[in-house]
Design goal:
The complex is a heterodimer of chains A (145) and B (127).
Chain A: H1 13-17, H2 24-51, H3 69-96, H4 115-140
Chain B: H1 2-28, H2 31-34, H3 47-54, H4 57-83, H5 89-126
Helix pairs in contact in B: 1-4, 3-5, 4-5
Classes of the chains: A mainly alpha (145), B mainly alpha (127).
């Protein structure tokens, strides 16, 4: 079978970041990528830092440096990025597999769009992500202890 | 066809991460609410609680599994985003090789650390 031929991205960076008139799902996808890049950056550093425990160094509990408010807030941002990326990722997988785009129908006027199925899914996933985020915020603020 | 296969793995890895990282988040970042796998006083990320989890084979195995699938998912995702800039074939090849080296290097480091930490925790528990 032939390889999939990719099209030129004439728009460059704007081709990544611009949603144009594609609707809120497209912007949700752009945010998915941005949160993914943020999580990846954190994850690569996280691997190195947590691997130090094999040498007896627990950097995240020793000293005051990583306990500064800016790092606690940064950690919460990573948590927020995870909550969004995970639940939006479930939506993207369901859409990619054709599960969340509705049944194929005859294109008879007035046309119906798969957004009738996709939009409620997006809303449900964002509510779940928000609930997870609130629980995380509750914990980060130390209210869960 | 090959890229389609890699993309399918990327999605499958995402599903695995959803469960493993979800568990990780429930333990580490919702520990104040869940109190999961943190029998010692203090935060879930304290040294004592970390050693407790490192001593469990379940955590050593899932750490390594999560490390592998998350590195694949993240680095393949980055590669996909970069390739959308319509790069020259040489640049694409260089990016693939660099990401492969970074991924394998960090996988080796993380696996070594998980296995070593497991040995240390077991030895500590035996006194």
């Amino acid at each position: 079978m032939a390889e999939i031929r990719r099209h030129d991205n004439r728009l460059g960076l704007w081709g990544w970041l611009g949603g144009g008139r594609w609707g809120v799902e497209r912007y949700a996808y752009i945010l998915h990528r941005l949160t993914g890049l943020g999580i990846l950056l954190y994850f690569l550093i996280h691997i190195v830092v947590t691997s130090l425990r094999a040498a007896g160094i627990y950097l995240w509990v020793e000293g005051e440096f990583l306990h500064q408010p800016i790092f606690r807030f940064g950690e919460f941002l990573v948590f927020a990025a995870f909550a969004y990326h995970a639940f939006n990722g479930v939506r993207l997988v369901l859409v990619e597999l054709g599960i969340a785009v509705g049944r194929p129908i005859e294109p008879v006027y007035p046309y119906r769009t798969s957004l009738n199925v996709q939009r409620p899914l997006l809303i449900i996933m964002m509510i779940l992500a928000a609930a997870f985020l609130v629980a995380g915020g509750y914990d980060f603020l130390g209210l869960g202890k | 066809m090959r890229e389609t296969k890699y993309w399918t793995w990327h999605m499958a890895a995402g599903v695995v991460i959803l469960f493993l990282l979800g568990l990780h988040m429930l333990i580490m970042h919702l520990g104040g609410i869940t109190q999961l796998f943190a029998p010692h006083a203090g935060e879930a990320v304290s040294k004592e609680n970390s050693l407790f989890r490192d001593g469990k084979l379940f955590f050593t195995v899932t750490y390594i599994l999560l490390l592998g699938v998350a590195l694949y998912h993240g680095l393949y995702g980055l590669r996909t985003i970069l390739f959308e800039l319509t790069l020259k074939p040489g640049a694409e090849k260089a990016i693939t090789i660099i990401l492969l080296i970074v991924g394998l290097g960090l996988f080796g480091l993380g696996t070594w650390a998980a296995v070593t930490a497991h040995s240390i925790a077991i030895a500590g528990a035996r006194g």
